[in-house]
Design brief:
The structure holds three protein chains of three kinds. Chain A is mostly beta strands. In chain A, 0% of the residues lie in helices and 53% in strands. Chain B has one domain: SoxY domain (Immunoglobulin-like, Sandwich). Chain B starts with a helix and ends in a 10-residue tail after the last strand. In chain B, strands 1, 3, 5, 6, 8 and 9 form a six-stranded mixed sheet that branches. In chain B, strand 5 (84-91) and strand 6 form a beta hairpin. Chain B is of the alpha+beta class. Chain B has two helices and nine strands; from the N terminus they run H-H-E-E-E-E-E-E-E-E-E. Chain B has helices at 5-20, 33-44, and strands at 49-51, 54-57, 61-62, 68-74, 84-91, 98-103, 112-117, 123-131, 136-145. By secondary structure, chain C is mainly α. In chain C, the strands form three sheets. In chain C, strands 6-5-7 form a three-stranded mixed sheet. Chain C has a two-stranded antiparallel ribbon with strand order 1-2. A two-stranded antiparallel sheet of chain C has the order 3-4. The radius of gyration of chain C is 20 Å and the shape is globular. The chains are: A mainly beta, B alpha+beta, C mainly alpha. Strand 6 (71-77) of chain A pairs antiparallel with strand 7 of chain B.
Chain lengths: 105, 155, 260
C-alpha cells in the first residue's frame, strides 16, 4: 500500500517548509453495519508522528472522524540537511513508516 | 492573523444562536452538545477558553460529508516563548466528538495543520488551540453537509 | 407557402447537424464533471500531492513491473515503459477485440493479457489491484483527447449503448438521458447533475472514499433509479461505457479524477 510524501528536496536554512503526507488506509469508523446487521469493527490509524533528524516535530492523535486515505499537511523550519521519518500506527497492529530527505543550504 | 475582536465576536454570535437551537435526535450514537462539551473539557480541563486567534478553514457547504478538507491555523509567532503547543478539533454530531489532536512546537515555524474529515450531518466544528502560556483559544464553524442523490448505500 | 417554408426549415436543420439527435449535447457544449464541482474538490484533483487517486496510480506502477502468472512475466516485460507504450491507450477504450468480435473495456483487456500472456488468474472487478493497474494505465493518457468509438466495427455496439442510455428503467422509470442530456446544471437533492462524461475513470469519489470504476458508477446510478444493475463486465455495461466514451469524444482524460 502506497504512501505519498511531499517534502521539498532543497530549502534555505530558516525557511518554513510544508510537509504533506497521503497514506492508503480504509479508516473504518467502527460505527457502520453490514447489510446483515453486523457491526464492522473499527480499523483506523490512531497516531502519526514525524521526526526530523530524530527529533519529533509533529504528532497527531486521530479518530474515526478522519477521512479514509489519511491526508496531513503541516509545517517545520528547515534547520539542517537530513532525514524526515514518518510513522503511522493504528488498530490491529497497523504500523507503517516512510522517510524523505532534504538538503538545507 | 489580523482577525479583529469585533469581527470575531460577530462570528461567534452567529454560532451561538445556531448552537442554542436544541437538537433532538433519536439516534443515541450521535455526539450531543453535552458530549462535545465533555470532550472539550477532557482536553482543556477547567481552564477558560477564549475566542480568537484560531482560524478554521472548511467549505461552508460541503459536497460530500465523507471527505471534507479542513485547515486550522493559529496566529502565533511560534517562538520558544510564544508558540502553539497543540490544536484540538471537535465535532458536534458525529457518533464521536473527537476529530484530531495535533501537537506542534516552536520548530513548526507556522501553526497550521490540514487534513480531511468526516461529517455525518450538518453541524458545528470546533477548533481549540493550546498556547505555550497554557491559555486556550477557540473558533467554531457551522458546516452544511449536502446529501448526495443516488448514493450506493440506501439508508 | 407556409408548409413549404416548414419543410425547408426542417431540411436545413437536418443538413446542418446530421448526426445529432434530439436531446443530445453538441460537441462544443460537452463538459467534464470537473466543471460542475466546487473549488475544494477541484483543488484535490489538481495537485498530485493531495489527490488520493495518486495512491492507486503508485500501486499500479508497482504492479506493472511485478512478475506474475505461470509465465512469470510482468506487464513491463512486453509493454516496456508505460509512459510511452500506454500513452493515449485508455482514451481509445473500450476497444474492439478481433478475436472476440466485440468491444472490451480496459479492465477486460488487462485480464485478457493476464490470461493469454501471463497465464495468471483474472483480477476481480473493483478489486484494488485491477483498479490500481487501470488507474496507472489510464493516467498515462491524462490530457489526451478521448477518441473511443472511432473504429467503424464498434458502430453497432455504440448504437446498443445509446439505446440503453435512452431507455427508461427502474421503479423511478428514468433513462440516463433524462438527467444527463436534458437536465444537467440543475440539482438533484443537493448535488449538481452533470453531463455524465466519463473523462477521469477510474476516479476517486469522496462518497466512496476510494477509487472506483465507471461500471461501479453506472451500477450506482441504476440503483438510484431503483433498477436492477447489470453485472460487472456484462455486454450491456460495456456497450454503455463505449457509448459514453464516444459521447465524450474530444474531452481530455483526467485519470485519476476526483469527484464528490
Amino acid at each position: 500500500m502506497a504512501a505519498l510524501i511531499n517534502v521539498p528536496a532543497k530549502a534555505r536554512r530558516g525557511d518554513i517548509i510544508e510537509i504533506r503526507t497521503l497514506t492508503s488506509h480504509i479508516m473504518e469508523t467502527g460505527f457502520r453495519h453490514t447489510a446483515d446487521g453486523k457491526l464492522v469493527p473499527r480499523d483506523i490509524i490512531t497516531s502519526f508522528t514525524c521526526r526530523y533528524n530524530g527529533t519529533e516535530i509533529f504528532r497527531a492523535d486521530l479518530f474515526p472522524a478522519i477521512a479514509a486515505n489519511l491526508y496531513l499537511s503541516f509545517f517545520t523550519v528547515a534547520k539542517e540537511s537530513g532525514k524526515f521519518e514518518f510513522e503511522w500506527i493504528g488498530d490491529n497492529g497497523y504500523s507503517s513508516t516512510a522517510s524523505a530527505s532534504i538538503i538545507v543550504e | 492573523m489580523p482577525t479583529t475582536r469585533r469581527q470575531f465576536l460577530s462570528l461567534a454570535g452567529g454560532v451561538t444562536v445556531a448552537g442554542a437551537v436544541p437538537i433532538v435526535t433519536l439516534r443515541p450514537l450521535e455526539a450531543t452538545p453535552a458530549m462535545l462539551n465533555a470532550a472539550i473539557r477532557n482536553v482543556v480541563g477547567e481552564a477558560q477558553i477564549r475566542s480568537g486567534r484560531v482560524k478554521l478553514d472548511i467549505p461552508p457547504l460541503v459536497e460530500n460529508g465523507n471527505t471534507v478538507p479542513m485547515t486550522v491555523s493559529v496566529a502565533s509567532a511560534m517562538t520558544a516563548d510564544d508558540h502553539v503547543k497543540s490544536i484540538h478539533v471537535f465535532n458536534e454530531k458525529n457518533p464521536q466528538p473527537n476529530i484530531g489532536n495535533f501537537y506542534l512546537s516552536p520548530s513548526s515555524g507556522r501553526a497550521q495543520v490540514s487534513t480531511r474529515i468526516r461529517l455525518a450531518d450538518t453541524q458545528k466544528v470546533v477548533a481549540i488551540a493550546r498556547l505555550s502560556d497554557d491559555t486556550f483559544w477557540q473558533i467554531a464553524a457551522e458546516i452544511v453537509v449536502t446529501l448526495a442523490a443516488c448514493t450506493e448505500e440506501m439508508n | 407557402m407556409i408548409s413549404w417554408r416548414a419543410i425547408a426549415a426542417v431540411a436545413l436543420f437536418a443538413a446542418a447537424v446530421p448526426t445529432l439527435l434530439a436531446g443530445e449535447i453538441p460537441p462544443d457544449a460537452r463538459r467534464s464533471g470537473y466543471s460542475f464541482m466546487g473549488p475544494d474538490t477541484r483543488a484535490m484533483q489538481d495537485d498530485d500531492t493531495t489527490n488520493p487517486g495518486m495512491l492507486f496510480v503508485l500501486d499500479g506502477e508497482a504492479l506493472w513491473a511485478k512478475k506474475t502468472g505461470s509465465t512469470n512475466k510482468a506487464c513491463a516485460d512486453c509493454h516496456g515503459d508505460a509512459r510511452s507504450s500506454m500513452k493515449g491507450v485508455a482514451a481509445r477504450y473500450p476497444a474492439f477485440d478481433k478475436a472476440l468480435g466485440r468491444p472490451v473495456t480496459l479492465d477486460q483487456r488487462i485480464n485478457l493479457c493476464r490470461a493469454d500472456h501471463q497465464q495468471a488468474t483474472p483480477l476481480p472487478y473493483e478489486g484494488r489491484d485491477l483498479l490500481a493497474l487501470s488507474a496507472f494505465i489510464a493516467h498515462q493518457s491524462r490530457g489526451t483527447a478521448i477518441t473511443a468509438g472511432d473504429d467503424p466495427k464498434l458502430k453497432p455496439f455504440i448504437a446498443q449503448g445509446r439505446a440503453l442510455f435512452m431507455q427508461r428503467e427502474g421503479q423511478l422509470n428514468l433513462a440516463c438521458t433524462n438527467c444527463h442530456d436534458d437536465n444537467f446544471d440543475k440539482r438533484l437533492a443537493g448535488a449538481p447533475i452533470t453531463q455524465a462524461q466519463p473523462t477521469g475513470y477510474p476516479l476517486y469519489r469522496l462518497e466512496w472514499q476510494t477509487l472506483g470504476s465507471l461500471e461501479r458508477r453506472l451500477r450506482s446510478c441504476m440503483t438510484g433509479v431503483r433498477a436492477q444493475a447489470y453485472d460487472y463486465g456484462s455486454p450491456e455495461l460495456v456497450a454503455l461505457q463505449l457509448y459514453l466514451m464516444s459521447r465524450a469524444r474530444g474531452l481530455p482524460m483526467e485519470t485519476p479524477a476526483v469527484r464528490p
